[in-house]
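TL;DR need structure tokens for one chain.
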Amino acid sequence: MTSFLPTLKQLQYLVALRDHGHFGRAADACFVTQSTLSAGLRELESLIGIVLVERTRRVVRFTPLGLRMAEKAQRVLREAEELTDMARSAGKPLSGELRMSVIPTIAPFLLPRMLRRLRAEWPELKLYLREETSGIACDALHRGHVDCVLLALPYHCGEVEVAELFDDRLWVAFPASKGPPPPATVSADSIDETQLLLLEDGHCLKDHALAACNRPELRAEATMLGTSVHTLVQMVDNGLGVTLLPEMAIDAGILDNTDVVARPLDADHPARRVALAWRKGSPRDREFALLAEALRGAYQPRSPAAPLADTDISLK
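>> reply
TL;DR here they are.
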């Protein structure tokens, strides 16, 4: 075996430069100076005798071999981290650091309850949170930037283990009117596609809402411009249309101080499923199962909606 092997630090520099595409930003991510990072990469190139990165004043360009090495280095770094994870999981569970990504349509509504419960049950756990859309969160998971992801299904997150937590029913939110009181539920067929407001691309809640309604024309006609669930509520409150909200947002009081009314969606599959995902083969499987159990107890959805009333509200 050769005695000249890349160090983990050199591999960390290589991966950081690939991820950030800039020496200064990569150095900041590694908590070193730019000159230290640059020198470490030059040492790596000298060690293997091949140029990995072409440097110009304006552009950082990886060679084809440099890109392949960065991909492999990412896997090596992730497995090196798992050595520490193995030792930690063999000791006291859910202690020390854990990095979790949470999607924006869950984070503000579940985290307050979740964090209180986790602090009470696992006081030695240091949970670091990142709020990211599903695609970015799953990519961060596979790159080893986070340990687990709290997201909503269905969503393809790659080769992961999944612990399903609970169903989160979708509700139809619309401006209050002075007419007769609205019925117990709102059917998907009664929604006017030209009045439907949804989150912009990148938010899986948009796809869950469209799938729940099972009306292909909604994708073509709905207005997709909301950047957050709170923004959608404000637009509905100003009479711009109707939208679909997760039940956990309703429970968290998102409609407080508005003139927006919400009723459960009446459809064949009117809910998304909240789940915890982590990498297959992780040595912390047992810890994530414990975490999932704690999360299940952190939120109790409302009881099932009442049967559809005899009179249905029309949102057309």
